[in-house]
Amino acid sequence: MQGMKSTLLVPLICLSASVAWAQSGRSVSGQILDQQGRPVIGATVVEKGTNNGTATGGDGRFTLRTRTEQARLVVSSLGYATQEVGADGEGLSIKLAESSTSLDAVQVVGSRSQNRSVTDSPSPVDIIDLREVTTKTGQLDVNQLLQFVAPSFNSNRQTGSDGADHVDPASLRGLGPDQTLVLVNGKRQHQSALVNLFGSRGRGNTGTDLNVIPAAAIERIEILRDGAAAQYGSDAIAGVINIVLKTSVKELTANVNYGAYDAKYRFDNERFDGGNFNANVNYGLGLGEKGSFVNLTLDYNKREHTQRANVPVGPDGLARREYGDPEISNASAYLNSKFALSDKAHVYVFGGMNKRKGDAYAWTRKADDERNVPAIYPNGFDPIITSDIWDASAVAGVRTALGEWELDLSNNFGSNRFHYGVRNSLNVSLGASSPRSFDAGGFQLQQDVVSLGLTRNYKTVLQGFNLAAGAEWRREWYSLFAGEEKSYRNYDPDVTGGSQGFPGFQPSDVIKAQRDNFGAYLDAELSVTQRWLLAAALRFENYSDFGSTLNYKASTRFNVTDFLTVRGTFNTGFRAPSLAQVNFNSTFTNFVGGNAVEVLLARNNSAVTKKLGIPSLKQETSTSANLGFTSRLGKSLSLTVDGYYIKVRDRVVLTSQFSSDDPVIGSDLQALNVNQAQFFANAADTRSLGLDVVLNHVATFSSSRLSSTLAANFNDLTIDRVQTSGRLAGREDDFFGPREQAFVKASAPPSKINLTFDYQVSKFGLLLRFVRFDKVMLRDWDGEPMRYDARITTDLTASYALTPHLQLAVGSSNLFNVYPTLFDPQRTETGGAWDPVQMGSNGRFIFTKLQARF
Fold first, then answer.
1. What would you report as the CA-atom Rg of the chain, rounded to the nearest whole angstrom?
2. What is the pTM of this model?
3. Cβ distance 47 to 64 under 8 Å?
4. pLDDT per residue over 458-474, tens digit each?
5. What residues does the TonB-dependent receptor plug domain cover (predicted)?
């Protein structure tokens, strides 16, 4: 790929030319303290208007060489008001004020107290600074950024998985994508309308599409690694991801990024493929002197196909003729704003729109395939499944002081619409007159949330008492719409009709459904002493389609010494089955051992499921506990260890597929003219035991800084019970068999370990990262085990400040071109040489990034 070579040469030329740029600026050092004179650890110190920054060590000290003589420093830390100071040389002493003195308080997810920072939270919280991550790593979208930064987070790009090729499923602590709640600025984000039917992660789940929000719009991401249904409601069994949008003003940031994969497995002479281009701009405009602002982000990303079909395994020497990542174009616009009404009240508005179009490879139809018409495709064909996805959200609210209370009233609307198309296809039953492109229909999910919250801090009750209460009303809508007639109709009973690659949704699939939910909560935190915190939360929710649930959470934190803190939580939780899981209905084509099979996924409460005795879906319930400690080992070394237990009962899963020759229900399936059928059911109880470990060390030298982090997640999920019902009672291995169970267990590797070294000296930065993905066990179509051996990937990035406002980074993700274990494509779910496990199957990624900040 000549263009790729030229693209990579440009930044190298710029880098060589920039060496002549003379040293400027000055060396600045100092210490960041709180109002009591204690060091603030991990505070961010950034030279205003540049990419140049650092963080304080265990003693609150920092050293930074500025890039301009008249530099100003912006100092920030969670729980404190941001402060701007002049860079006046050595020995600065900067005291940060707590931000709880105004309505601009930073709220860390997991606590409604405005006096709580991440370091004294009773629950484990990861804080990921997106400014740091996006400038030093090769990943461009939020899912992939988190996949290689947060060990408890897992997300893989799917291939050969229909809709999941276009929307990446993601999970926390090895549970399902729908068991993690996503918030944006503390407000519930709507889910995707997609139900994942294929792939190794998220089968039968609906999840939240994190990639609709551009990384350029995000200030930080908070990951609460603890159950929080009693605090935030449904879906928070595994934890909560809170995306905090940028609030910066008078600062323009622009990025241009490009990279491509080193194509190890191709049948042609192309060296690179999967080109990934991203460009974005962010600007914040300050309005007046009361903190009003408007921050706007525009982002465009274009990702090309990868080709990984030429793998030397399988009976014909090839996995598939076309196999690899889909082509995706993604455009986003996001807004975050605040408008002061007075010193004690302000209005906030945030949200955005995302438009995504995708082309994904479906299974190859060979020339002599009964699903081919040789007059149209004499050499066979590879259908392309297209997507047209619209996603939009808008939140408007007001925060105001009411005496000693603070009130937050908001309305939140979100919508996700997924429209399928099929091209390079045909309908066999129409013969040579068949069209080659089809409108296959789709689905849409909408959500509207009205929430009211009240918070008050009683500073004179012992060492402080925070009380929060609130209520929330939510309405959800789900609709499924049919495709054009030729996409689903069979015009010849002797063959299988419908568009090849993805049969369109039929009129019998069409549905419009809605439900209402009302919730109320009470949340309290008491600082018994300066060392001991007690917290509790209680939440009641009522759903119009299945009834009520009451959940609670209790937690504590105790500072044993100034260097050791222990913490623990115990909570109950729940997850309401999504409207998509309740109402989805489709007949689709699956490939079992390479052979096409028609599968009916019957809607819950349909005539088919009622006849078989499949009960109505109900909520999942959970019990979980977390016990851990945080420690400061000296001035620059910190350690956090958290063990957890999560028990989920009545988990909603996608059952195994029942064939038309089944002795009990086979005749019913034959009458429906389908080969196989499967359903959604509350079929499993699961139990997770795990451990999260984070070890961080910061070493500062005269003009440089080395930050080293070792982070790991160890997770063991077991299926305690499979429950059947109706005419399928007693057939546990048939209802939810070993193969489907293996996919649930493979939502995360048993362990993921991340070792990162981040070195900064003057204008030069170097990041080296190793990620070890543990083995993953799946089963093939015959039930035989498939062991994907452990793998280690290596990322290396070098960055250089070309000018005070311009930074260049070049590097490689998966530097040594590591792939998962290869298998016969006839055994995998995708028809390729591997399932979408561990770090993915594209190999080495080479990239360059250019960032401007003014």
1. 27
2. 0.88
3. yes
4. 989 999 999 999 999 99
5. 118-240
